[in-house]
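Reopening closed ticket. The problem is back. First fold of the pair:
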Amino acid sequence: MFHGPNTLANHLVNVRLFRGLDAAGLTEVAAAARRIERKRNVTFFRQGHEATRFFVIVAGRVKISQITPDGHQVVARFAGPGELFGCVPLFGGDVYPGTATTVADCASLSWDRSITDRLMQRFPRLAINALNLLGQELAELRRRFQEL
């Protein structure tokens, strides 16, 4: 799935976390990524497991779901190309709050916690973007809570 004329950095241009990085920065971030491909109905990580890395989808779709205390599965969201998932390590969390399962063959780029920390020190724009993403997520959670 990583075939074709596009470089890995081209897959990151429109990802919100990487906005504001120049071409050299995107190339460095892409070079630090691990490529991961999964077939349909394969799990990237499970709810409650140690959060070791975050992901950007290059191709395919991923379902993020959670099991409630009474055993019901709730779909939190679907993520597609250019979207992040498993972002807990970006924000200092230790465990994944949900399970990420492919709903189509999927290609992703992934960065572990130590690489992410190094990249954020090298490119402070990443840390600023991560805080903005966290703020947007918090605002969305507040909106949903008010609806309930």
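Second fold of the pair, where the issue appears:
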Amino acid sequence: VGRGGLAHDLAIVRFNLAASLQELERFEESRTLLVESEQIFRDHADTRNSILCGLGEGLLLQRLKRFREAREVYLLLLASTRDIEKESLASIHQAIGFCSIELGDFGGAEENLTYAVKLFQELKQPIYIVRVELGRGTLFIRRGEPAKGISHLRLVRLDFLRQSMHEEAGICGLEMVEGHLLLEQADQAEILARTIISEFT
């Protein structure tokens, strides 16, 4: 294997190591490896793996609640190449949408989430669509439309439960609880919270 090929192989090892470091909560070390690996993949015209590194870095920053930095990483990914496979493109727009919600950029959030749904529909990936719809329901609540958000999330939550995706259903339910509290519907919020707890146990 030539020196260039060895560097590429090492980048793959580092990329996998970065994921393990996150489980150990060694986040800065993980991010450093992701950034270094992404550059090596770019140097070798390995677009797929460079995008995976970028997505990994963005998700790490989201995990740390550094949403502005995460969104910048995703936007740079979009600007870096037009050769992005549709599934990765949909995931990037979904992530930008989720970050935008946290940053209060509701217009940007809606635009990116809508585009992500369109791409996932073309890919015929219904589970991914439901996950994006969770984001849209959250958007409605954060934007000051709790009744619309609750109505939207009720259907999303049923989809998750039908797929036995209890963690996602629980997250969805917690957003609905927030909506009920905004509407001063404390009794409904408590009933739903107790239901979520019973589902998890």
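Update: turned out to be a display glitch only; the data is intact. The mean pLDDT is 91. The longest helix spans residues 3-23. Please close again.
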